[in-house]
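Collaborator request, handled under Task 6.
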Amino acid sequence: MVFMKTIIIKVLGPKIPCNNCVTAQKNVEDAIKQVIFPDLEFVVVHDDIRSKEHLEKFGLLKSPAIVAGDYVLFQGMIPPVEKIAKKLADVVALNMDEKPKKSSPNSTGCQCGCK
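C-alpha cells returned to the collaborator:
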C-alpha cells in the first residue's frame, strides 16, 4: 500500500472569490500539473483571508494570497504559473527534508535556537 503525502494549497481572499482570486487559483492548478512528485498530492482550496485562523497564523493583509502548508508563497498579486511551480517545488523540497524537531533548551521555547 502506498501512502500519499498531501500538501494543502489555500488561495486566500474574500469569502466570495473575486476575479483575481479565481485567476490565482487557476494558475495554482496549472502549476500543480508542472510539479510532479511520486507519492505526493496537492489539494487546492479557496478560503476566507479574514478568518480568525488565517489572520492569527499568517497575518496576511493583501489578497489574493497563496499558502502551501505553513508557507506563504505570495500575497497581493496574481503570480504567473512558472513562479508558482518553482515555489511549490521549493515547498516540496522543504517538506521532504523535514525531520522531527527536538525541543530547544532556550528560554523562549523557539525551535530555531534563538535566545
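The cover message to the collaborator said: "Residues 5-97 form a domain with the Glutaredoxin fold (CATH 3.40.30.30). The first helix runs from residue 19 to 34. Please let us know whether this matches your experimental observations."
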